[in-house]
Amino acid sequence: METNQAFLVTDWTILIGAMVHVWQDRRILRMGVVETVSTDGRVIWLEQGHGFGRQVVDKGSGFQILISEQQLRSIGKLQ
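Above: the chain's sequence. Below: its structure in token form.
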């Protein structure tokens, strides 16, 4: 059974290749595909598409990452 549940991700190192939503202060700021992650997992580079280009997202600035159950499955992090 497929659900529309979203999960808060604390370990950003697992996100390469996943479509994610970036949140701050309980609102969505942007969404896109994670291109790469810093080795310490505190920074991601997000490809937003639709002419918005690449964006750096820093965990230390209070951003949160939410990912769908389907995306977790697609990157092999959920069975």
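The longest strand covers residues 27-37.
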